[in-house]
Amino acid sequence: MDARALLTACALLLTALALPAADAPHPLSPLALLYAVAYRGESEGCMTLHTATWGPGGGVDLTIRLTGAEVDAIGLTEAEGLVEHMDTALWALAILRTGHSVRTEAQTEITADDLHIAIRELHTHLVPMVGGIRDAAIRRHRELGGTTGQLAAAMDSQRSSAQRRREALDETGPRRIAAARWEAWASAKRSDDTTDQD
Fold this sequence. Notes:
Layout: H1 3-17, H2 30-38, E1 48-54, E2 59-65, H3 68-74, H4 76-98, H5 112-143, H6 148-155, H7 159-168, H8 174-187
Antiparallel strand pairs: 1-2
């Protein structure tokens, strides 16, 4: 997966956060929900990803454009936070592929401290956030009457895997409690001063 694909994934995650609540006047149908999360188009008015080159070294600005409704639904602070975590993922991918620093002129070899930063950010923020968004989308899909077959198609997996993923939403235990907190975060009404969970 390249940088553009990663940023597109981030845009999809932000789109998922901005989806209408179940009690909204016009909630999405199960198929529309899956389409919005898995195959978001880039038509006018939708969140879009833009790229522009800068500097002599071949750098690129990657910009995610949000609609006003998406900013209202997500909150600017949380949108910026999620993009910051995606930035860490891109940085980690680059240092893992090159074996050296990529954001300083002196290309020193990566250290355990560099990887500590990457692991902490990804493990404590981005991965659980993405998991929470996924779980909230799967639960909403089920509530809207989506079938296991449709879920399997969206997940590009066997029906049995999709069924297990659905059933996992109702499990209990310490691991599910942590996952449920992030699912609740993903589906809660947002405010601009909301920050990441601890």
